[in-house]
Amino acid sequence: MKKGSNKLAAVLLATTLGATSLPYAALHAQAAAPLSAGEIQQAVSKMTQLRVMQGYQDRSMGIYQQVTRAELAKMVALTFGLQGKAEQTVSFADVNPGAWYYNYATTLVGKEIMQAKDGRFDPQGTVTSAELVQIVSKALGRDTKSVQHWAERLSSANGSVTRGEVAFLLQTAHKAIPSANAKVTSVRALNAITLIVTFDAPLTAQDEVFAKAKEDFAFNDGLTLTNMPRLKTGSVATYIVPTSVQKPGIVYTLTYKGNKAGTFAGNATKLDMTQARQVTNDTFEVEALKANGVVDYGYIISAYSAGRGANAFVLDDSNSADGKTYQVISSMQARQVTITPAGGEPIIAKYVPFTQSTDGVQEPKFRLPEGQVLKPGVAYTVTSDWATIANPTFVAQEIAPLALSEAEALSDTSISVTLTADPKDELFSGRSVELTSADGEKLLATYKYSSRKGATGVFGLQQDSKLKADTTYEVTPVGDWAGKSQAKLTVK
Fold it and tell me: Please, which residues have CB within 8 angstroms of residue 278's CB and are 6 or more apart in sequence?
């Protein structure tokens, strides 16, 4: 086995792939321990049982021999059951159709899991661990960061990997194949609104959908699922599961798909938030800081890892990285807080969707009920049954809203709306505009979540309405979120 340095694979892989920045955890974590001979042999035995690996004519397994691309194509295709499932037909300039690996190679290249530059597969070429990670990620349909984490103990990202190392990584990846029959193996409450639930295999995409998951996850004493379960980056089948606020002292039972799956005690731990601050005349935010050991789930789940750049990292089973244990903020969907004006009555403010961890910050937004605004000069205090806010009070100010500057038809059912400046952090969220034609017809268009690009957001027409050709509309905000501004939109 190669004795090369065992630097953290995530760092080496990012260098190999030309990454511009590295996750905090990758920069500071200790190097992973190298694979032992026993671990490699165990993985080879498992892959042999699954008929993924075969020995050579001399009956050796060649576990310390560099794997060839031909061998890898077969091993990957068999591990994930991909034989004959290519989406496109391919041919090679350097592979005989009668070659033992031909069908495996055409399958993986046809599915764009492996590459054949200029029509050459290079069957006897070797593979680096960086290349292996990309191949396994595509074959499994899993985020690259998780597979990088599993590959940390391979000898080097720059050197070629051995058959034994491939067996080790594929053994882990095989466990991570989603199953419609996944069963809960453990459940525990992480904080007042979050569970950590581990399964014996990952859930299928269909079982993760919120509507389905809400049926499958059942609890006693009124506890409910508040959003879909999210797979933790780097785990095989561990999920962050958001719930309504748990009651301390209550013993809850989780029933999954009709079967009792485990019990846990209601957790009284509230999330440590830093401060509350106003952002518009009807919206405020509650800040949390990673520096204080609080991380939004968006930075540690597989579904978001590719889009979070240097902010994405892996927490271990104890939710620790680099010697620090983190509190995890799960989904804010359906969350609310109470905001009380000095000398006034409490007001319930609801979470503004898709604002909890965007633009690189952890500052979920909350909005007053329709038609209500924060009164300038009045001190407001924010409280919550799921968070402790160190600095919960702010004095409201009059904040001039951004104005509409232009609108454009994108189709007969959607328009783009541009403000005079970038509203940042999805403050378009939950907003609507009204379109009025010269003949008095009125149409309503509502912001499409996560569509913002700078100062421009996309709004979709409601109630099956459609724009009329050769018509000019006056576009105005519904409510005061963009003041009394307006924009003209002409449909050609």
Answer: 284, 374, 380, 394, 396, 397, 399
Q: Which of 194, 202, 264 is nearest to 235 (CA)?
A: 202
**Alpha-carbon span 429 to 57, nearest angstrom:** 64
What DSSP element (H or E) covers 54?
A: none
Largest CA distance in the chain: 87
Asked whether the predicted pLDDT for residue 77 surpasses 70, the reply is yes
pLDDT tens digits for 134-166?
999 999 999 999 999 999 988 766 789 999 999
Residue 18 is predicted with a pLDDT of: 34
76: nearest Cα among 116, 107, 115:
107
Which position has the token pair 């008929």? 51
Centroid of chain to Cα 9 = 21
CB 359 within 8 A of CB 392: no
Of residues 344, 335, 354, the one with CA closest to residue 374: 344
- Distance (Å, whole) CA 56 – CA 305: 39
**pLDDT of 29 strictly over 80:** no
SS3 83: coil
Give 315-374 as a 3 state SS string.
CCCCCEECCEECEEECCCCCCEEEEEECCCCCEEEEECCCCCCCCCCCCCEEECCCCCCC
DSSP string for residues in 248-309: TT-EEEEEETTEEEEEEEPP-PPEEEEEEEE-SSSEEEEE--GGGTEEEGGGSBHHHHTTSG
Cβ neighbours around 280 below 10 Å, total: 20
What torsion, rounded to 10 degrees, do the Cα atoms 186, 189, 195, 196 define? -40
Q: Please tell me whether the overall predicted TM-score, pTM, comes out greater than 0.85 for this model.
A: yes
Angle at 126 between CA 125 and CA 128, to 5 degrees: 140
E-assigned strand segments in 112-202: 184-191, 194-199
* Rounded-to-integer distance, Cα 445 and Cα 477, Å: 10
Strand partners, 191: 194
Residue range 213-233: average pLDDT?
98
Q: Are 111 and 85 spatial neighbours (Cβ–Cβ below 8 Å)?
A: yes
Q: Which two tokens stand for residue 183?
A: 């069963």
